Amino acid sequence: MMNKRLKEKAGFGALAVLTFLAVVPVLAIIGYLVWQGWPALTWEFLTQPPRKFLTEGGIYPAIIGTLALTVGTIMVAMPLGIGTAIYLVEYAGENVFNKLIRIAIINLAGVPSVVYGLFGMGMFVLTLGLGRSLAAGALTLGILTLPIIISTAEEALLAVPDNYRYASLALGATKWQTVRRVVLPVALPAILTGTILGIGRAAGETAPIMFTAAVVYTPRLPDSIYDQVMALPYHLYAISTEVPNVSQHMAFGAALVLLAIVGAMNLVAVVIRTRMRLKRLR
Amino acid sequence: MCDKNKMETRNLNLYYKGFQALINVSFPVKENTVTALIGPSGCGKSTFLRTLNRMNDVIDGTRIEGEVLLDDENIYDAEVDPVVLRKQVGMVFQRPNPFPMSIYDNIAYGPRIHGRKNKDELNEIVEKSLQAAALWDEVKDRLHKSALGLSGGQQQRLVIARVLAVDPQVILMDEPASALDPISTAKLEDLIHQLKSSYTIVIVTHNMQQAARVSDFTGFFLNGEMIEYSVTNTMFTAPRVKQTEDYITGRFG
Predict the structure, then answer these.
(1) What is d(CA B149, CA A93) in angstroms, rounded to the nearest whole number?
(2) Which residue from A18, A176, B194, B235 has the highest number of Cβ atoms inside 10 Å of its Cβ?
(3) B168 near B202, Cβ under 8 Å?
């Protein structure tokens, strides 16, 4: 009897230690970033372009560039991803063609991001002649995000009970009316959450944009989708590896801002989900 | 009670992949009556019910032979649109399945998808349907609250109101009381009695007393075949077939 209790305690103790160990690196990274980056965060840093070969001034164009790329990514990946998921879950039957699509999507998720970068350069920058531009970068990041969005949206749609579909069809609704008015509203919170989390990841990618959209330095803000932009991840990469004599704090300040943007997007995802869930039950 | 067949199946066979779920079923459904389908689990009564509004079409791998008539027209004819058919033949499922929307939007869902947009008209349909389903007095002050906040029995009556709102001619019910407590069940049975004057009802039930209480005609199914069909009273007092007698006296099933 005692032995059983002891084992129970040891088991839970071990799990608690493992959980703690898993959380430590995350907290350490955030803590270190704040500690190192906080001194750099001034009003000037956030609102001015860089000066003197990136060694002074701010990161404003990179913030705007990253936000613009993110919006572009959303516009590319959301309709494509959600549309594909709806087709796969609600319309596609079990045939060879659809199996191939599913396998292709799973494999897309395993492709390294630098490969997306190369593909984006070949396809969008050169072949389609978009040049190094917001458009080419957003398309590349969009494709990179697609597998995540498709699979989370698929899961969200599959989680909608068939009861709802049957009830709607039995009332004489068409399949599209059923999807549009019953299934999608139920699945939407989970779809949006997955989408935003996926895009948050894309916002921090360097490799896909370094060949397709980002430049080391431009004081200009983009005013068309054919403009090239600065972007936070690439800026970080550039000042850490290619520019000598940059203050440590500048780099960590930029990293902190990038983290804050991604964190804010994740927060938005959580808020959307909670609010939509509550609304349904009220 | 009139003698017109509102619906009728003729030599109906249904195959699900390799399995024959219904074997040569010929079955009448008389207008403005309640017809009960009884039989042990897996006997095909629910499958049969779903052939009457082509809900089996939704399941991959089902194939049908024979005829299912609604007002003497075969509903499996190529020119019949199942979407239009299901507006005429509504269905209530085993578990109450209100949509996660307000009570009002649940009832207005059917009329809206069939193109009604006028607010006054919708208000009227919602009130009329809820009244017909004996739910109006309980929910009239909370129409815009979520339907998921209702009790199981209220949800099932809401679902019936939702079916009534599209103005069907036939209502199919697949064990509608199996998830309800005895008081909710009694209310539901009362409701079925009231609805009979305006609608034709087919109900699948596991509960023999329920079949005896609510129905005018009863069909007994066993292993995909319709074994016996007769006036409910006769069925329960003097069944013709031995298997029917064994089932309703509880010797198997």
Answers:
(1) 35
(2) B235
(3) no
As a whole number of angstroms, the distance between CA B67 and CA B12 comes to 6
Contact list in A for residue B85 (CB cut-off 8 A) is: 172
**What is the percentage of chain A residues whose pLDDT exceeds 70?**
97
All domains of chain B, ordered by start, with CATH? 5-248 (3.40.50.300)
Residue with tokens 């919602």: B126
Torsion of CA B58, B59, B61, B66, to 10 degrees: -60
Cβ of B86 within 8 Å of Cβ of A181? The answer is no
Cα separation of A66 and B184, whole Å? 59
Contact yes or no for B107/B159 (Cβ under 8 A): no
Q: Cα dist. B78→A241, B74, B82 in Å?
A: 70, 9, 10
Which residues, in sequence order, are bridge partners of residue B200? B170
The model's pLDDT over B120-150, given as tens digits with 9 standing for 90+, comes to: 999 999 999 999 998 999 999 999 999 999 9
Q: Are B168 and B114 in contact (CB under 8 A)?
A: no
Residue A84 to residues A31, A131, A267, B228, Cα–Cα distance (Å): 40, 28, 26, 49
pLDDT tens readout for residues B217-239: 999 999 999 999 999 999 999 99
Residue B178: partners with Cβ closer than 8 Å, 6 or more residues away: B94, B205, B206, B207
The pTM assigned to this predicted structure is: 0.84
Closest C-alpha to A45, from A252, A205, A218: A252
Q: Does B96 touch chain A (CB under 8 A)?
A: no
A159: contact with B, CB 8 A cutoff: no
| Fold of the A64-281 domain | MetI-like fold (1.10.3720)
